[in-house]
Amino acid sequence: MPRMFDMLRGGGDDEMKKKRDEAFGKEAPKNKKPQDPRSVNFPKEIIRKSEKSIKKPEDHSLMSKKLISAVKKNGVDNQEVARGIYKSAIDTIKALLSKIRNRENINPLMIDIYALLDKIFNQLLLGDNILNDIYEEKEDEYFLPYHIVNMLILSFFLGINMGFNKSKLKNLSVASIFCDAGMDGMQEMIAQPRKLTDEEFEMIKTHVHKSLEIVEKIDSVGDIVKEIIGMHHERANGSGYPKGLKSDEINAYAKIIGLVDTYEAMTHNRAYRGGMSAHKTLKVLINTLKDNFDYDAIKLLIDKMSIFPIGSIVRLDNEEIARVISVIPGSPLRPVIMILKDAFGQSSRNRTVIDLSKVNSPSILSPI
To answer: Is the pTM of this model over 0.90?
Structure first.
């Protein structure tokens, strides 16, 4: 597996060239299966163009091109690999929370955590499909490990699309892991099937201080990460906590994580309410909560997650059901989709991938 960020930099040595060739599917698969005529074609000139563009993280279309390439080379959107990485992430975070609970030394586990960041980075770089996993509900499971992993993936995804370098991505991703770690001891309170009382909510707010206490004992966590954690519940209009900071007073990374934290929580069930669709959540963020968050952070989330965010289930105008697996900047209504069910409601075995921005039909009728 390539070293973290080497693929974004587009290293020139033979080994990295070989890795990039493999990642972009330079060699055609030997036993091709019959394809749906609507499936995405990926001609060699686009592959060559994508390889040249690898040095430019600001080329946001590159992410979608790599996803399509990975699908064509490895089969049904390589979801098995994505699921394996996601499960590994959940296991690592569960181990982290266990050590925190038992007051054990976390420093040795940081090796596994940084290795996990490498895996997630490479998976996001080669295909967005790991984002599909963040929308799956885990019934009767403790929500916090999943919440943390989902926040990590979303923060990482936005950071990559902003062209963040290695140092910035590390700060953002590590902060996203630990910002809610201090909430672990509040499981029973959060599990109440009702809205929290004012007194209980004040207790919940103390998780920021508890999270800071945890990272103070980790040798590899710097001051910038601690600042992000301390500010991730501050809001642009001053309504946040613990200090009621406003706009420019809030760390830029904390603005991203604060928005991601809210988005992730709104799209998932909690004991006292059901989760909303990603589509509806974005509408609420735009219309109701727009003053809470930095304008640029909201715009970034919308641009990258699209009107129909990755992971959304949609109904097409031909009655097929599909999952959004990638978004195309500049084409918010026509993302890349994977067919899940045909017009008769039968599961699609081929899981055809269609870039709607490249074809006239079908079109998305509505989110589900």
So the answer is: no
